């Protein structure tokens, strides 16, 4: 079986519960996964350093730099990689391909593998992908995790359990966390993640700084996470919070290890929020133009804050959405205290 979910971070994490259930119920099945190179760490740790299986869910990864192909569609390198990927997928002899991306490019990858069954949602994200599926599956779930599980049910021809996904463990990442968090002297810490995919989803920097102050005053350690290119944003949050936090830019495997140790994660609609939810950690999601009923935290212990007049809008605007700006740091702080008390 080949899983088609190339990226991005949150989307892979939303697909993982369904694939984990398939793996748990059918440990003898061979599962491959086609993924963009930057997200490989969500599925595999370094085999030499991992505890247990280096790939807890997949048996084989097919690294597919599809975005790079899109930027340079006619380069010799792209054409060579496409030919190699087609040969690799066909040689694996997959009997079933499961498209959990719902895009034309992922469905085309499925066709390259020449499976007996190419399965996807009846109403995929890109409507044209439906016409490439051998079995379009109707889904009734609101959340994308529910929809992925419904597709997986059709693959397995049974009702699969809803479960937390299995994520890899890296010894190198664990040592990184030991070093970076040594100054916390073993006390509880929260992770603040001020970045997001675009400006409309970013809660203001100064409010994250206010939160950092409040947590520090209450005796919590504070870690500010930044993704690539977000280092200045993390530094600004730290400055607004009195420079009492630890600002980190971890690799993906280190972020997994860091989040496993956290007592709480506060973030907007972005990959680190979905990672915390996938790991079963208490999370606070600060939402604006995206719909948490479809893409928010799922299961576990969480609170979502969103203004009732915020409307779903995926326009890549630079400024925070108006409803997002109505959410105050005191509201987030109150929600955080509720979650932390529930966790005790």
* Residues in helices, as a percent range: 25-40%
Average of per-residue pLDDT values: 95
CATH superfamily of the largest domain: Glycogen Phosphorylase B
Q: What coarse outline follows from CA principal-axis ratios?
A: globular
Strand order of the largest sheet: 3-2-1-4-5-6
| Rg calc | 20 Å
Total strand segments: 12
Question: What string, H for helix and E for strand, traces the elements in order?
Answer: EHEEHHEHEEHHEHEHEHEHEHEHH
Unreliable residue runs: none
CATH topology of the largest domain: Rossmann fold
Query: How far apart are the first and last residues' alpha carbons, in Å?
Result: 41 Å
Category from helices, strands and their pairing: alpha/beta
Strand residue content: 5-15%
Name of the top-level CATH class of the largest domain: Alpha Beta
Structural domain tally: 2
Query: In DSSP terms, counting alpha (H) and pi (I) runs of 4 or more, how many helices?
Result: 13
CATH architecture level-2 label of the largest domain: 3-Layer(aba) Sandwich
Q: The biggest beta sheet, please? A: 6 strands, parallel
């Amino acid at each position: 079986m080949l899983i088609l979910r190339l990226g991005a971070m949150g989307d892979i994490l939303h697909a993982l519960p369904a694939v984990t259930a398939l793996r748990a119920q059918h440990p003898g099945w061979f599962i491959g996964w086609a993924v963009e190179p930057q997200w490989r760490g969500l599925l595999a740790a370094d085999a030499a350093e991992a505890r247990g299986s280096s790939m807890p869910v997949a048996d084989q990864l097919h690294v597919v730099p599809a975005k790079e192909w899109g930027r340079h569609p006619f380069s010799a390198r792209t054409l060579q990689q496409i030919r190699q990927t087609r040969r690799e997928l066909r040689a694996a002899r997959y009997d079933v391909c499961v498209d959990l991306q719902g895009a034309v490019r992922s469905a085309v990858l499925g066709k390259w593998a020449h499976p007996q069954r190419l399965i996807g949602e009846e109403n995929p994200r890109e409507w044209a992908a439906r016409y490439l599926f051998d079995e379009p599956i109707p889904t009734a779930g609101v959340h994308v995790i529910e929809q992925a599980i419904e597709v997986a049910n059709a693959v397995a021809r049974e009702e699969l359990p809803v479960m937390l996904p299995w994520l890899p463990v890296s010894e190198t990442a664990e040592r990184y966390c030991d070093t970076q968090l040594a100054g916390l002297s073993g006390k509880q810490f929260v992770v603040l993640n001020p970045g997001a995919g675009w400006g409309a989803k970013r809660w203001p920097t100064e409010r994250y700084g206010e939160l950092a102050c409040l947590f520090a005053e209450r005796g919590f350690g504070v870690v500010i996470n930044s993704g690539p290119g977000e280092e200045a944003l993390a530094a600004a949050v730290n400055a607004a919070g009195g420079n009492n936090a630890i600002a980190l830019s971890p690799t993906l495997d280190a972020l997994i290890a860091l989040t496993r140790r956290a007592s709480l994660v506060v973030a907007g609609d972005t990959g680190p929020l979905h990672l915390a939810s996938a790991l079963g950690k208490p999370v606070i999601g600060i939402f604006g133009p995206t719909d948490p009923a479809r893409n928010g935290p799922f299961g576990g212990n969480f609170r979502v804050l969103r203004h009732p007049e915020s409307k779903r809008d995926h326009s890549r605007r630079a400024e925070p959405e108006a409803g997002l700006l109505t959410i105050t740091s005191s509201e987030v702080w109150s929600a955080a205290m509720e979650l932390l008390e529930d966790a005790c």
